[in-house]
8-oxoguanine deaminase
Amino acid sequence: MTDSMVETRAPKRLWIRNPLAILAEDSAGGLVVEGTRIVERVRAGAAPAAPVDETFDAARHVIIPGLVNTHHHFFQTLTRAHPVAINKPLFPWLKALYTVWDRITPEAFRLATRLAYTELLLSGCTTAGDHHYLFPKGLESSVDIQVEEARALGIRAFVTRGSMSLSERDGGLPPECLTQDDDTILADSERVLRLFHDRKPGAMVQIGLAPCSPFNVTKRLMRESAALADVHDCRLHTHLGETLDEDRYCIEMFGQRPLDYLEEVGWLGPRTWLAHGIHFNDAEVKRLGAAGVGVCHCPTSNMTLASGQCRTCELEAAGSPVGLGVDGSASNDNSNLMEGVRHALMINRLTYGAEAVTHLDALRWATEGSAACLGRSDIGRITEGREADLALFTLDELRFSGAHDPLAALVLCGAHRADRVMVAGAWRVVDGQPLGVETGHLREAHTRLARTLFGTH
């Protein structure tokens, strides 16, 4: 067979048929996937408009768009529930963990990344965003490792090249051994953008620039990162508005509130999405919405560190995209985005009332909202032309017995592990198992390194 014959062969058409429920209009008969994309939604009782090559019977499955994670710190899987940091708010928590994070090795980072990707995938996440800002000596190729691991697993990745350049000596929080100078950071940012950033629809890997926070980087780094993002057409990401301590720091250090700082350094625009975004006043919420700045709501982390409650409904009403993130596995202690959907529903009902926020809102934040934060219109929804990124859950566990609305049951009854996951038209989880990963071996190796490098003796 010649190469030209291979190139012109039509992709197989797969009909995912008659699901128990599906988060898409007019799709009770399922959907058809061709190549990497959804090409048809099938009405109840109907058949696809054109012949299909394969059929998957989804009668046991509830189908939702693949979840999109917009904030995480993969390396922190190695320091979950660490004795030096538990039961602390953000600033003391960070200072405690800075004393152990400098021990991370490339091998440990690779396993931490693999574990986080796998956890996310098993929870129904098909696009995994990470904010990696830790570059101690020897870990300069962290972004390269994250891209390699994503490609090996087949998950869609949005890796942000984070950074810290202000150490304790300069008035920042981290020790000097965890920081890099601005020139080194900017040079590597440009390197990874040129190597890995794919701006085309359907991209499997994209890169963003993510100076860590106002208390960890210089204003010069913020400004020049924004300029670099304009050149390479990439997104900008940082922590902002997470705690009242941050407000006080910005006022003392810069003489202004965090959002004024963001505007001064040229970040107040639709290219930017922020992690947490809790402590904005009414006027600031309106400014964020008018500028189109996205906010990643991290409900589990916000509750763990008692940071506060994100103003999700006001932000959306003002015009800001709102997405979801699991945040770091030392401030969440897992990497399960489906669990994050449930937590988002609960904390926002506590904030706004039982009728104001529904399970559909929480699912929307984790799919379309998160995709919008990342600047992507090709994922996050089940409709023709979008990428075939899907999460399929069964309701076979005791926790679902007696449930009447399958989509509501996923959130209210606490679904946490997908039975099947498809990314770009290819199955990546089958019968609850990630393809190409032996989870027992991964856990054993990861646990061993976590205890060796970060254990308390």
